[in-house]
Specification:
Pfam family, one: HATPase_c
Keywords: Kinase, Phosphoprotein, Transferase
Enzyme class: transferase
Number of strands: 22
Number of helices: 19
Organism: Haloferax marisrubri
Strand order of the largest sheet: 2-1-3-4-5
Distance between the termini: 121 Å
EC number: 2.7.13.3
Helix content: 40-55%
CATH topology of the largest domain: Beta-Lactamase
Length: about 650
């Protein structure tokens, strides 16, 4: 007779035999000890068995039904009250089926017929192993179930099981989210708790998973509790099969606060971008270790007049619009900032000031850029925030104020000193003429009045607003220079003016003539050397010598000519020249080197006229004498009066 393989429990199984028949007990112990996996001990009554198990727990108890004619079996079953109780096997003669029925009803694990045969003892050993394995598995399952209960109840997310669209299980977290007790939820359709607008999402998801078209899915729905309060849940589900039937096992998490935070963050980002875009300044954000632009507002295109895509592709491409004199310095400053960041010695702010020329324009503009390293909680640089402001209007306003102040100072000086001088001369000479009846004094009066007239004209010219609209027309510069020399030559004596070929330009003819006139007067005033015969009234015949002969004789020669490529023109003389120490001030209104004999307004008027045309004037180096150069196109020029 084949009994099949004996199932052995893992490890040595300790068995306690309870039998008051010494002979039978010894025979049973001997037979069971023959099994490698069993360690058998024996006692004679149930009370002794309880004591032995309490002292050192056994894996299985094998007991007789009656002891000395009494039913001590019930006493022995009290072992089930101990933690992890061992299985109890009834090993007795089975004279009635009622014994078997009552034994199983009492809670025994198995019943084995007690017959004095080797087969029955083998059966007993087999049943002991099976009972111990089953008990251990049951204990493990109980422990696992206990752990699952703890995990489910302590989980920070909702857990659920759905079968046929109805809720089979929810943990406490999810029941709290739904606003009901667990027993109020289990058995109800899941859609009972979903707002009507989102139920189609759940129905479609469950249908797909029940039919096996998808294994898992994730979606967001809103649920309503018994008070009508809405909660947004992020649902995940996985298809599984339990007892041959499909179920959906998944999680539910309250994302109401997260979604609201994301909404507010998106709104904040949108508002921030709108604010930054509306700023008059250019705002940009760069990577922390190199100049790599990750964001820039629309003002870049408005200020630089270049498509922003160029800057994203090549962040340093803007440098080719920076003034040539400032380009290398700005490039070095940017490199030094990123070197500081890489070396960990970053400053709170970096500031740069430079000039630039917008694309397609010829006008120089001034800019100020500030770069602020943004730090994280560890003090590491995460990005560079930059702000660039166009300072052109401010600088122009400051220059205008400075010019106005200079003009006011000049006016005050002219009124307080320069006009008083010739006026006093005229008054004194007029009194002498009356007293002595000598008309020669009236010539001095006339010259004093002429001087006062020149002063008034200069003051009025300087007082004009240089920003007024030019009466622009085509002006031959040679004709304007000739007209200006004609007005100055009456007091020029033997000075020669040589006017070369000059271009025709768009300009204000009156102002241009005034420009030449003041440059000529400046040369006459500071460089004129009389011939020594005292004739300065222009009454003698004009000298027939050439300009080179005159220059060779040490006489003053003024030349006017065009610069290379007709970029401008020059006015120069062979006089003593302009010392380098005063070149930075000669265009300041009121500055003069002729003590008591000059008002210092002439060159200030010259620069005003030049500025009004968008030109630039500079003092150039010359082998001898003074040389002024006026440039029509100032782009890329260094060392100008500006």
């Amino acid at each position: 007779m084949s009994l099949g393989p004996v199932v052995h429990a893992e490890g040595l199984t300790r068995v306690l035999l309870v039998d008051d028949d010494p002979e039978t007990s010894a025979e049973t112990v001997s037979a069971l000890d023959g099994c490698d996996s069993l360690d058998v001990a024996a006692v004679a009554d149930p009370l002794a068995a309880l004591e032995a198990h309490a002292e050192s727990p056994f894996d299985c108890i094998v007991t007789e039904l009656e002891f000395d004619g009494t039913a001590g079996f019930d006493t022995l079953l009290r072992v089930r009250e101990s933690p992890n109780p061992p299985p109890v096997i009834l090993f007795t003669r089975l004279d009635s089926e009622d014994v078997v029925r009552e034994a199983f009803a009492a809670g025994v694990a198995d019943v084995v017929d007690k017959r004095p045969t080797d087969v029955q003892l083998t059966v007993l050993a087999h049943r002991i192993s099976n009972a111990v394995v089953a008990a251990r598995q049951s204990t493990e399952l109980d422990e696992l179930y206990a752990w699952l209960q703890v995990i489910a109840e302590q989980s920070l997310v909702g857990l659920y099981v759905i079968r046929d669209g109805r809720i089979e299980f929810v943990n406490e977290y999810l029941s709290n989210l739904l606003g009901y007790d667990t027993d109020e939820i289990v058995g109800r359709p899941i859609t009972d708790f979903i707002v009507e607008e989102d139920r189609a999402i759940v129905d479609e998801s469950l249908r797909n998973r029940d039919h096996g078209s998808v294994e898992s899915m994730s979606y967001t729905v809103r649920v309503s509790d018994r008070t009508g309060e809405l909660t947004t849940l992020e649902i995940t589900g996985q298809r599984a099969v339990v007892d041959g039937e499909p179920v959906v096992v998944g999680t539910a998490m309250d994302v109401t606060a997260r979604l609201e935070s994301e909404r507010l963050l998106r709104r904040s980002e949108r508002l921030t971008r709108q604010i930054i875009s509306s700023l008059p300044d250019m705002v940009f954000i760069s990577e922390p270790t190199e100049f790599d632009v990750v964001y820039i507002n629309d003002q870049f295109e408005n200020i630089w007049r270049r498509d922003v895509s160029y800057l994203y592709e090549n962040p340093r491409s803007f440098l080719d619009l920076v003034h040539v004199d400032d380009r290398d310095q700005l490039r070095r400053a940017i490199d030094e900032m990123f070197t500081d960041i890489r070396d960990g010695v970053v400053d709170e702010q970096y500031e740069f000031e430079f000039r630039f020329i917008p694309e397609g324009s010829e006008n120089i503009r001034w800019a100020n850029a500030r770069a602020v390293p943004l730090l994280d909680e560890n003090g590491d640089v995460t990005n560079i925030l930059g702000v660039m402001s166009d300072l052109t209007e401010r600088i122009s306003h400051e220059r205008e104020l400075a010019q106005q102040n200079a003009r006011l100072d000049a006016f005050a000086r002219v009124l307080s000193h320069d006009i008083r001088g010739p006026l006093a001369v005229a008054q004194g000479r007029l009194e002498l003429a009356r007293e002595l009846d000598d008309d020669n004094h009236l010539d001095h009066v006339e010259r004093a009045h002429r001087r006062i007239t020149d002063l008034v004209e200069d003051v009025l010219s300087l007082a004009r607003d240089e920003r007024s609209v030019l009466d622009a027309e085509e002006v031959p510069l040679a004709d304007a220079a000739a007209t200006a020399w004609e007005m100055c030559s009456s007091n020029a004596g033997d000075v020669c003016c040589e006017i070369g070929e000059l271009p025709v330009v768009e300009a204000d003819e009156s102002r241009t003539t005034r420009l030449f006139e003041n440059l000529f007067r400046n040369a006459l005033q500071h460089a004129h050397r009389p011939r020594g015969d005292g004739s300065d009234d222009g009454g003698e015949p004009r000298d027939s010598r050439t300009p080179s002969d005159r220059e060779g004789d040490g006489e003053l020669v003024i030349r006017v000519g065009a610069l290379p490529s007709h970029r401008g023109f020059f006015v120069e003389d062979n006089g003593p020249g302009i010392p380098a120490s005063i070149r930075d001030h000669i265009f300041d209104s009121g500055f003069s080197t002729k003590d008591g004999d000059g008002n210092g307004l002439g060159l200030g008027i010259v620069r005003q006229i030049v500025d009004s045309h968008g030109w630039i004037i500079r003092v150039a180096d010359s082998a001898s004498g003074a040389r002024f150069e006026v440039l029509f196109d100032p782009v890329g020029e260094a060392g100008t009066s500006d």
